[in-house]
Amino acid sequence: MSNVAPDQTVFIHVQERFATRARALFYARLALMAIGLGVLAVPAWHRALNIPLPSGVYFYLLVLGYQVGSYLWVGRRFARVVIFTTLCLDLLVFLFLVAASGGIKSSLMPTQLVFTMLFALLYPSPLAIIPPLLTLPVVAKIDQILGIQTLPGDLLLLLWYCALNITVVYVMVYLEGRERSAFQEVVRLQRERRQTALDQERARIAREIHDSVGAALSGVILQAEYLASQIDATNTALRGELEELRESATEGMEELRRAVSVMRREFNLTSSATDYAAAFGQRHRLQVQCEHQGLEGELDPEPQLVLFRILQEALANVARHAQAKSIHVRLAFDEHSIRLAVRDDGSGFDPERVTAGHYGLRNMSERAARVGGTVRIESAPGAGTAIEVEVPRRG
């Protein structure tokens, strides 16, 4: 549960709590059914409640059957609906017994408060507790039909039971709200604690990478520069290889710095994209224009990194395949999303006929989809290529 989203954690908690209370409901029902078995076994008791035999036994077995069935259904699909239905059936049984044993003056009437409490525990919603509350006017109507209603005594009892029901419902709903708020607070604190631990671990790994890999790359750059200064000036081939080695190590160092900044949550998409585009244009002797619109603001690191990787892939494709002279890069920020557009004036291609083995475009789409974004590619032979990516600000 610690690896799921907070909203999902709360949902799982609610589901597990319902299952626990539904099982507790079954044991409460067993206690009531045990009393019912005693009523059927003692002649004076079932005569006092006007329960005929053997039909009372058959009815008892029917009630026990659907209660066992609802217990076995806990944890399955539509369990909440099934248990709600069986509780309503219990209310019908309760109404029958109350009508047979004296109406609103029956000694069984306090059981109605138990049903109200059970409904409030399992379904803490104003609509869900309507069934037990409806039993009060139904009992009053039964008394009127049977001709055993006495006013104003019955009216006083009805108002008293209504007041008790309202009190029970208010207390249960209030406690339910407090419990849910406390659990959400615990989830929030756990999430903050995990995030703090994660940030500390990221900072530690960033330091280790910077001090180890960064030092190694710096050594490669210094070695390449030293060797280049020691060889004969006429050995242009070896000088070129050393320059390539130095540039590769320098590029690796820049990539390392970007990775460390992402891990430390200090990565800035606009400046990183601008610097990379400028360095790319200088390295490949291309005219690269980079602009941005809107306010960057606070962004999640993952969407920023996804857009930067897509920019790298798009520029690399231009250098390898497009034979372009100029590239235009545009970043646009709005309230909900970030858009990246990369356009070139190269040879273009048919997006529907990309040869097998070229995974750059597919990688772009997969990267964007991972953060809920989309990629759109427009190109035609001889007409250049335009790649537009849109991702949400929050990954």
Q: What are the SSEs and their pairings?
A:
Elements: H1 6-41, H2 43-48, H3 55-72, H4 79-100, H5 111-122, H6 130-146, H7 153-230, H8 236-263, H9 269-284, E1 287-293, H10 301-322, E2 326-333, E3 337-344, H11 360-370, E4 374-379, E5 385-392
Tell me what you see in this structure.
This protein has helices spanning 6-41, 43-48, 55-72, 79-100, 111-122, 130-146, 153-230, 236-263, 269-284, 301-322, 360-370, and strands at residues 287-293, 326-333, 337-344, 374-379, 385-392. With 395 residues, it is of the alpha+beta class. Among the domains are: 6-149, no CATH class; 269-395, Histidine kinase-like ATPase, C-terminal domain (Heat Shock Protein 90), CATH 3.30.565.10. A 5-stranded mixed β-sheet has the order 1-2-3-5-4, covered by helices on one side. Strand 1 (287-293), helix 10 (301-322) and strand 2 form a beta-alpha-beta unit. Helix 1 packs antiparallel against helix 3 and helix 4 (79-100) runs parallel beside helix 6 (130-146).
